[in-house]
Design a protein that fits this description.
This protein is α+β, with helices and mostly antiparallel strands. The protein is built from six helices and 13 strands. Helices cover 26% and strands 32% of the residues. Bound molecules: guanosine-5'-monophosphate (5GP).
Length: 261
């Protein structure tokens, strides 16, 4: 069996060389990490759920013209994606105070913010992904001023889309993180949304009960992560509600999509 070339392994995903030049295969692991890997666990079924939820969100974004890297889902754990040059910045959009914003500014969790706030963090595990200003981004050449404008416009569009999508299923979008990359088509470059959008990278609270339905269940040791992610997937109409998506390695959707490990 031919072995695929592994391009990159992150905390929750692995990237493999894709079948065509300019493509990659993104594999969703069950690993959960928090506090820069100080807390680590394997949560059976998390990767399968994030693959499905992220596929659903990216597919809907494509439909309304938000450019992103998804080509198609291949199987339970893998997606075929466009290769991009990752911009080393995590873009966080916040609607309600939570997480590090509360720690930094002494806000109360759950306070609705006067307006949506965009933050940038430098993607550097060794430094705990520190918060940076636009000045750092342009001075160090991570992105140009024009690219920052494009990124902010894209982040606001994603926020509006996700807020509506989740509100429609009784979930409040508190905040989220996206990653972006440069993608070339012929000679034109444009910035597209990459990585994943899932309960690992968003804070999602049930609108009626404020129950946390995201990775804070792991970060805060609340338990019930797979059940919460399954409920998100169920409400999105991706899987029958309350059907846990556990176990199993890649399951092929069709022979044409065949990938090898
Ligand atoms: P905070 O800065 O409050 O920890 O996170 C803000 C938002 O960005 C949360 O929705 C959180 O899940 C997401 N986020 C921030 N950093 C990361 C990261 O390194 N990985 C993932 N998956 N999400 C992150």
């Amino acid at each position: 069996m031919k072995k695929r070339r592994r391009i990159y392994e992150g905390k929750a995903k692995i990237l493999y060389e894709g079948p065509e030049p300019g493509t990659l295969v993104q594999f969703f692991k069950d690993d959960a990490t928090a506090f820069n890997k100080k807390k680590h666990d394997i949560i059976d079924g998390k990767g399968v759920l994030n693959n499905r939820i992220s596929e659903h969100i990216f597919t809907q974004m494509t439909r309304i013209g938000i450019p992103n890297h998804l080509i198609k889902r291949l199987n339970m754990r893998e997606q075929l994606i466009k290769e991009v040059e990752i911009i080393p910045i995590e873009v966080i959009v916040r609607n309600v105070a939570a997480g590090t914003l509360c720690e930094r500014l002494g806000l109360t969790e759950g306070e609705v913010l006067p307006r949506s706030i965009i933050e940038f963090c430098y993607k550097k595990d060794e430094l705990n992904d520190p918060l940076v200003a636009e000045e750092h981004i342009t001075a160090f050449g991570w992105a140009s001023p024009q690219e920052i404008d494009d990124i902010m416009a894209l982040a606001i569009r994603v926020n509006d889309f996700l807020s509506g999508l989740f509100a429609g299923i009784g979930i409040q979008l508190i905040d989220f993180k996206i990653e972006l990359g440069r993608h070339w088509e012929n000679d034109a470059m444009r910035i597209i949304v990459a990585d994943e959008i899932s309960p690992d990278s968003c804070r999602l609270w049930d609108m009626k009960t404020n129950k946390k339905m995201d990775k804070d269940r792991f970060r805060q040791g609340l338990g019930g992560l797979v059940d919460a992610y399954s409920e998100v997937a169920g409400r999105l109409g991706i899987i029958p509600e309350n059907e846990p998506q556990r176990g199993s390695g890649p399951v092929l959707v069709s022979d044409n999509d065949k990938t090898e490990e």
